[in-house]
Design goal:
mainly alpha; elongated
């Protein structure tokens, strides 16, 4: 009654690999599989590119799209490798103490300039809340 599950040996392929090998043996199924992988990967990749200019996780979409394409296409594996290398270089550059200090100073300076601009606006024009406006025709 106490049957222990035995893990497959490293040499024995898993169910997905057996399925994929069976598909590779049939040229029509292999072409259909690659077309489907290309369609899904390209859709996710294009969605990631669109999200680079619209709100959304664009970089995640690009990397996931390339990862999907890399399961079947060598050119996508190379592109994914280059993207990972660029991300590692950017991470190292972002953690450089001099650049972090510079970015902190620039961020603080930008916040001070913005606060001064808001204060100057309030001094010149005052703070009039929408519910304190007496002339309703102003809004029409």
């Amino acid at each position: 009654m106490n049957e222990e599950k035995v893990a497959p040996s490293p040499e024995e392929p898993g169910p997905f690999h057996r399925f994929r090998d069976r598909v590779r043996r049939n040229p029509l199924l292999n072409t259909a599989w690659r077309a489907a992988v290309f369609a899904v990967g390209a859709t996710v990749l294009i969605g990631g590119l669109i999200m680079m200019v619209t709100p959304g996780p664009g970089l995640v979409g690009i990397v996931v799209g390339l990862a999907i394409l890399a399961t079947e296409f060598a050119w996508a594996q190379r592109a994914l490798h280059r993207a990972k290398s660029a991300a590692d270089r950017a991470k190292e550059k972002a953690f450089d103490p001099r650049k972090r200090r510079r970015n902190a100073v620039l961020g603080t300076l930008a916040a001070v300039v913005l606060a001064a601009a808001v204060a100057a606006y309030l001094v010149f024009y005052g703070l009039t809340l929408p519910w304190d406006i007496e002339d309703p025709t102003f809004w029409t």
